[in-house]
Each structure stands twice: as structure tokens, then as C-alpha cells.
Amino acid sequence: MSFDVTLLGTGAAVPSLSRGTTAQFVNIHQRHILIDCGEATQIQMRKFKVKFQKVDLILISHLHGDHVFGLAGLISTMQLLGRTTQLRIIGPKGIKSFLLQQFEHVGLYRGFPIHFDEIEEGASGLVFEDRLLEISTFPLNHRIQTQGYRISEKPGKRQLNKEEFDKYDVSVSYINKLLDGEDIEDNEGKIVRSDDVTFPPKPTKSYAFCSDTAYHPPIIEQLKDVDLLYHEATFIDKEAERASETYHTTAKQAATIALKANAKRLILGHFSARYQSTDMHLAEAKTIFEQTFCPEDGERFIL
Ligand SMILES: [Zn+2]
Ligand SMILES: [Zn+2]
Questions:
Q1: Phi and psi for 25 in degrees, rounded to 5?
Q2: Phi, psi of 244 (to 5 degrees)
Q3: CA 47 / ligand 2 centre spacing (Å)
Q4: Percent of the chain with pLDDT over 90
Q5: pLDDT at residue 186 in the model
Q6: Which residue from 55, 32, 42, 31 is spatially nearest to 8, judged by alpha carbons?
Q7: Of 4, 56, 66, 237, which one is the catalytic site residue?
Q8: What is the pLDDT of residues 87-114, one digit of tens each?
Q9: Could you say which of 134, 159, 178, 291 is the most buried, measured as most Cβ atoms within 10 Å of its Cβ?
Q10: How confident is the model over 237-273, as pLDDT tens digits?
């Protein structure tokens, strides 16, 4: 079982030699999710050894170019390399026509199905779930419709405490009920409490992605107790005014969101190309939230 996030691109709108535009790869229990797909994401994936044919789900935050200009190229390469399995794309309204029009203009033949789920502006709630995980979305505050996402493990089953279980005269056919949290009666009519003979499931973990957005406290509710939070921090404090004009966030503001949400760790990103280093972002954020990280492209965080 694994749950990790690879930062494929940590720069803002202008790609540079050292930082690509936004893209992240999330590997959670053998499900492979790409979040955003800025220009040249497929090159970043090759560079950082992410197998892109494995990607089965793409989450898109918004339709600004630095988050989507890599999509058509990536899908075209998937096709050229013989992909046949379905790809699912979840994103804001307009993501489907944005892509299909490009395919139409270049005459791209697709040998594999793409399923689109478009999110209505302002919507929040569950957008994906399977046996092991669920993904919810919530609106951010940017110049066009922008969605944040939270990817959470589902609680597993309780585990049998064999030593305690063996103290009772219980048929093994009741084990599943006990693991489901039900109390039962043993063969002598004694109550066997699930809590007494099983261990609780291991705590679940979650990862949240917030980019791009102005400082927007309403999202704190959606981020409560998140284990790992990615929040954009395009600017440092000196450019706070510019941040608010352009609907972006400063490092301090991102740290405030992490603190108020009771996040465990914070990753900053979407760094403006005007900064030679992220030392100031890190120093400013740490005055508010100690567990802050300013990654380089290719860094991986394990949950
Ligand atoms: Zn944007
Ligand atoms: Zn952006």
C-alpha cells in the first residue's frame, strides 16, 4: 500500500529551466492520478520516472494555460504509444470542449475512451470514489472557475485481536460481523463486544490540492486535519497587493490556511519566476506554520 505525491512542476505561469508549470502525480494504493497538466508535463514525467500510461484519472483545477497546455500533448503521446484503457478527466466546465476542439483541429484519432466529468461553477462535494479512496472538490477564488481537490483514503476494516477473540466461544462465521463493528452473542449467550475483540482500523490519510487562488478562508472547512496540503504561494509578503490583484496567495497567507485547517504538513508551490530562490517564501511561511516545505520539481512526499 502506498500514498505519495510527486511535484512535477512547481512554477507559476512562465515555465523555466528549473521549474515547470503546475502538475503533480499522486500514487494512492495503485491508483495513479495526475493533477493539472501544464505545458511539457509529459517531459517532466519522463524526467522523474512517472509512467504516464498508468495514469487513469486526471484532475484539472482550472483552464489557465499553465495548468492545461500539456494535456493535448500528453494524450496524443498516450495514443501514439498504443494506449487502450480508459482515461477519466475531472475538471471545471469547459474542459471537455477545450480538449475535443484541439483533437478535432489536429485530426487526432483516439484509440482509447476518455470519460469527462465537468464540475459546475461553485460546486463542492464528492467527484470520485472507489473501494479504497474518495475525492472531493471545492471552489477556490481565482479569476475563472477553479476547483481544489482533496484525496482521502477510505477507512479500512477493523482487525481481529486473536488473543481476545479466543477467550470466547464464538463460531468463526461471526468474525465478519465483529470486524464490521457489530456486537454478537457467543455460544454460551455471553455478549461479545466488537471493541473488545478487534483493533480499530488504521487512521486514514488525505492530501489536498489548492491552486490557483486568492487567500480564501472558506476553504479551511474543506481542509480540516488534512495530512498534507499543497497550497499555491505565488508571491512573498512584499507583493501582497499584487497577489490579491491577480487572485493569488502569499506564502504567509498559505501558511495561515494550513494553520487554521490544522494541517500536518504544507507544501508551497506555483512560485513566480521573478524569484531566484524560495528562501523568503519558506522563511515567511515558517513564522506561521513550521512544517512548511518549498520543493524543487521532482520532489516526492510520502503520506
Ligand atoms: Zn490561474
Ligand atoms: Zn497558475
A1: -115, 125
A2: -70, -35
A3: 21
A4: 86
A5: 86
A6: 42
A7: 66
A8: 999 999 999 999 999 999 998 877 899 9
A9: 178
A10: 999 999 999 999 999 999 999 999 999 999 999 999 9
Does the annotation count 66 as an active-site position? yes
- For the CA atoms of the chain, what is the radius of gyration? 22
Do 134 and 252 lie in one domain? The reply is yes
Residue 12 confidence class, pLDDT cut points 50, 70, 90: very high
Render the burial of 29-60: b for 16+ CB within 10 Å, e for the rest. Answer: eebbbbbbbbbbbbebbeebebebeebebbbb
Q: How far away, in angstroms, is 4 Cα from ligand 2 center? A: 22
197-207 pLDDT, tens digit per residue, is: 999 988 899 99
Give me the CATH number covering residue 127. Answer: 3.60.15.10
Using CA atoms, how far apart are residues 58 and 52, in angstroms rounded to an integer? 11
Q: How far is the CA of 196 from the centre of ligand 1 (A)?
A: 52
In sequence order, what are the beta bridge partners of 127?
Answer: none
Instruction: Determine the pLDDT at residue 110.
Output: 77
Ligand minimally distant from the alpha carbon of residue 272: 2
Among residues 199, 219, 253, the one where a domain terminates is: 199
Closest CA to 230 of 198, 264, 191: 264
Query: Residue 1 above 80 pLDDT?
Result: no
Residue 188: domain span: 159-199
pLDDT of residue 217: 98
Give the separation between CA 212 and CA 140, rounded to whole angstroms.
7
Q: How many CB atoms lie within 10 A of CB 277?
A: 9
The answer on 164 and 142 residing in a single domain is no
Instruction: State the ligand closest to the CA atom of 140.
Output: 1
- Among 199, 223, 250, the domain-final residue is 199
Task: Give 252 Cα–ligand 1 centroid separation in angstroms.
Answer: 19
Q: Which helix (H) or strand (E) holds 134?
A: strand 133-139
Ligand nearest to the CA of 273: 2
Its pTM surpasses 0.90: yes
What is the Å distance from ligand 1's center to 267 Cα?
Answer: 18
